[in-house]
Amino acid sequence: MEKIKGKVIKGVGGRYSVFSNGEKYSCFAQKKVKYFYDDVTVGDDVLFVKQGKDYVLTDILPRRNSLVRPAVSNVDGVFVVVAPLPQPDLNLVDKVIVNCNKQLVPVTIVVNKLDIADERFAEDIAAQYDKETSAVLAVSSRTGEGICELRAAIAYKTMCLTGQSAVGKTSILNSLMPGLNLPTGELSAKTDRGKHTTRHNQIYPLDNGGYIVDTAGFSLFDLVDVKSDDLGLYFSEIFEISKGCRFTMCTHTAEPDCAVKEQARTDAVFDKKYQRYLALYKELKEKEDKRF
Fold first, then answer.
1. Can you point out the beta strands (E) in the chain?
2. Which of 130, 170, 172, 228 would bridge with 285, disulfide CB 3.0–4.6 Å?
3. How far apart are CA 271 and CA 110, in angstroms?
4. Contact of 43 with 213, CB cutoff 8 Å
5. In Å, how far are 89, 109, 153 from 160, measured between CA atoms?
6. Secondary structure tally for the chain: helices H, strands E
7. What pLDDT is recorded for position 37?
8. Mean pLDDT in residue range 36-62
9. Cα separation, 96 vs 282, whole angstroms
10. Residues contacting 129, CB < 8 A, separation 6+
11. pLDDT value of position 196
12. Which tops the pLDDT comparison, 212 or 193?
C-alpha cells in the first residue's frame, strides 16, 4: 500500500485536512499514531494511505520544532502581530518570544494598522524589539502598505501568524491571499478588546511556495518549561548586557553590581523591557514556589 506524504493544515474533531501535491485530503489518524506521538498537530509532515473510501494517517515524520501555544509544528518563524488598537499587551508578546527562543524559532514583529497608528507607535515597538527579533515589519492590511514585503518574507517557508484578537491577523491573511475573504473580527465597543474569529489553527498555502499558519487570538498565555532563573537567557538584549554582571547566574533582581539593572536605570526604552522582565520573573517564581 503506497504511502503519500503531506502536511496537516487543519484538524477538527479527529479529522485532519492534509495538503499534498496541490490537493487537499480529509484524513483520520490510526490509534497507533496518537499513541506514539501524543497527538497530531497542525504543521506536521505526515504519511497517509487510502483505505477503502477513507484516507488514514499512518506516520508523523520527525518534527523540527513544536510550539505549544500556538500549537503548531515545523515552523520556520513566527509573526507576532501588534496594533495600536486593541491596546497591545507586550507581556504576552514577550512570552511568545521567550517560548520561540527556547526552541530556536525566529520571531518577527508585525506592526499592523499603519493607517490609524500614530507614527511614534511603530517607532516605539521597533525600539523595544529590534534587538529581540529577526525583524520589525510595518503594514496596513487596509491600504496594502508593507504587504508585498510580508509576502516575500514567507516565500518557501512555513510562518505562523499570532497575536491578540482584533489586531488584524485575518485581514492580513486576506491581503496576502486575495479572494480568500475570511470573516474578520471587530473590537468590542465597551472593552476595546477583540472578538475571536479564528477558532482553529489552520495553514494556508501561498502561491510563492510558502505556508502561513493562522492561529486563534490569545488572551492568556503561559511560558513553557522555562525556569525563573533562566528567564534572562531568552531575551537577547538582556543576555548580552548580563555579560557585565558580577555574578554569572545573575537573575537581575536583587544581586549587586548587575549590569542589566544599571542599563535600565540609564536607558528609558530598555527599562520598559526590564520592567516586563521583572513581572515575568515574578510570575514564574510564584508558580515555582507553589509547586514546591
1. 4-12, 15-20, 23-29, 45-51, 54-60, 66-67, 72-73, 77-82, 107-111, 135-138, 158-163, 202-205, 211-214
2. 228
3. 22
4. yes
5. 19, 12, 12
6. 8, 13
7. 55
8. 87
9. 17
10. 93, 109, 136
11. 43
12. 212
pTM above 0.90, yes or no: no
Cell of 262: 544599571
- Residue with the bigger pLDDT between 192 and 269: it is 269
The type of residue at 14 is G
Question: Are 238 and 252 contacting, i.e. CB atoms less than 8 angstroms apart?
Answer: yes
Please, which pLDDT band fits residue 191 given cuts at 50, 70 and 90? very low
Using one digit for the tens of pLDDT, what is the confidence trace for 247-277?
A: 999 999 999 999 999 999 999 999 999 999 9
- Can you tell me the distance from the alpha carbon of 292 to that of 286, in angstroms, rounded to the nearest whole number? 10
Q: What is the mean pLDDT of residues 11-40?
A: 82
Q: Using CA of residue 93, residue 99, residue 103, residue 104, what is the dihedral sign?
A: positive
Give me the residue label for grid cell 499534498: 20
Residue where the block lists cell 503506497: 2
Amino acid identity of residue 219, one-letter, is S
In a 10 Å sphere around its CB, with 0-12 CB exposed, 13-18 middle and 19+ buried, how is residue 58 labelled?
A: middle
Distance CA 290, CA 106 (A): 32
DSSP 164: S
Q: For 72-91, write each residue's pLDDT tens digit.
A: 899 999 999 999 998 999 99
Q: Which three cell numbers stand for residue 244?
A: 557585565
CA 80, CA 5: separation in Å to the nearest integer? Answer: 30
